[in-house]
Specification:
- The strands form 4 sheets. Strands 12, 13, 14, 15, 16, 17, 18, 19, 20, 21 and 22 form an 11-stranded mixed sheet that branches.
- This protein is α+β, with helices and mostly antiparallel strands.
- The chain starts with 6 loop residues before the first strand and ends in an 8-residue tail after the last strand.
């Protein structure tokens, strides 16, 4: 299996969504869709990271030269590095910009990469047109988003409110500044907010609310900004490695369990669904229902069924997705008709199954079940209108 080690995401992934369209849509070809091995590798990458982390961080792995690893730093050198780090006022405190001379400020350069003439020109335009002594700069991301040879920038200015930033998003070109939002948003600072999709780049920023956050996604076309179709459609839009695999979260379901007395489902859940970029748009890996008999043809399936039965659960249904992911929905029903819902997520590769922990929910069960079970119900798709479904289950 290919290893996607260049970029690692630590994401809080817990999703949900509903779809009942299981039409047979051909799986995209290799040229416009990641291979199953690539997608599975990305999914495994997620398994290796803490699923219950509240923030989302991207780390970039750079090649290490021999010279950089030939000797350990001296104690004096270590102290110098620590002092330098203390001098850096990172962006979670914002940056006070006063005059053009501040463009040479090391903190500004460190935080936002303001180290070339294109960036300096655009940040000057921003502050010339958005002067407010009570606001600080929290994000400034310059790039050639539509690959036309001209640079644009997205910026967040405002003031800190608790752990969040109460501010506005601006679009900046050499010709001027346009405020994207007409109201105040609460924004989580995001260090690596650009998705490079080959023929375009997208800027992502968070809108934080009480029970989660939305991914606001913007692009540029012909020098003008636009809000992408995937924007605000879910929480925690993240890219997996360097492939065209993404995860998205829906925190809108209340399906931890069913109360017979109240005749309703309750309990807030968040569940992870998988997307890919096909060269033109985002598409979701929709799930088709397979039988328990089909499932048992996979190596390791019987152990999954046994584990569920040992914990007084029965299989509600099983979904297979085109990226090799299988969701096994489980129900625990008591004598009074009350129900508790769980699901297992598994990776299918070369006919073998492996557990994949895809969220931070915990169950009230013990041992292996508790570690692997997630709360709620997985559905065929979260974003049904962009879902592609596999034609069939690959094991005969």
């Amino acid at each position: 299996m290919k290893k996607l080690l260049a970029v690692v995401f630590i994401s809080a992934s817990i999703l949900c969504g509903c779809a009942n369209n299981s039409g047979n849509i051909p799986e995209p070809t290799l040229s416009d869709n990641p291979t199953r091995a690539e997608t599975t590798a990305a999914a495994k990458l997620e398994q290796e990271t803490p699923a219950d982390t509240a923030a989302s961080t991207e780390a970039v792995s750079e090649p290490v030269s021999e010279s950089s690893t030939s000797a350990e730093p001296t104690e004096a050198e270590t102290d110098d590095v620590a002092e330098d780090a203390d001098d850096i006022v990172f962006s979670d405190d914002g940056f006070d910009f006063g005059t053009p001379a501040d463009l040479e400020d090391e903190d500004l350069i460190y935080q936002f990469g303001i180290d070339d003439e294109n960036a300096k020109k655009l940040i000057e335009v921003l502050f010339e047109n958005t002067a407010d002594p009570e606001e600080k700069l929290y994000d400034f991301v310059i790039d050639d988003y539509d690959l036309d040879g001209s640079y644009e920038a997205f910026a967040v200015k405002g003031r800190r409110s608790g752990y969040d930033i109460e501010g506005d998003i601006y679009f900046v070109t050499v010709e001027g500044v346009e405020k994207i939002n007409d109201e105040t948003y609460y924004l989580d600072y995001d260090r690596y907010p650009v998705f490079d999709l080959g023929d375009r780049k997208l800027y992502r920023v968070w809108h934080v609310f009480t029970t989660g956050r939305s991914a606001y996604v913007y692009g540029v076309k012909d020098g003008e900004w636009y809000e992408h179709e995937i924007s605000q459609r879910g929480q925690d839009l993240e890219r997996m490695g360097l492939s065209d695999n993404f995860t998205i979260v829906n925190g809108g379901d209340y399906d931890i369990g069913y109360s017979a007395d109240d005749n309703m489902t309750t309990g807030h859940t968040w569940k992870t669904y998988y997307l890919y970029w096909n060269g033109e748009e985002f598409r979701e890996y929709g799930g088709i229902e397979i039988s328990e008999e089909q499932f048992l043809k996979c190596e390791g399936a019987q152990q999954v069924i046994d584990l569920a039965e040992e914990n007084d659960c029965f299989v509600s249904n099983i979904l297979y997705r085109g990226n090799g992911l299988i969701n096994v929905n489980l129900t625990d029903r008591d004598f009074y008709g009350n129900e508790t819902y769980y699901y297992f997520s598994l990776i299918l590769e070369d006919g073998k199954l492996e557990f994949l922990r895809t969220d931070g929910n915990s169950s009230n069960k013990d041992g292996e079940f508790e570690y692997n079970a997630c709360s709620g119900i997985m559905y065929p798709a979260f974003l049904e209108d962009i879902a592609d479904y596999p034609e069939s289950f690959p094991i005969e």
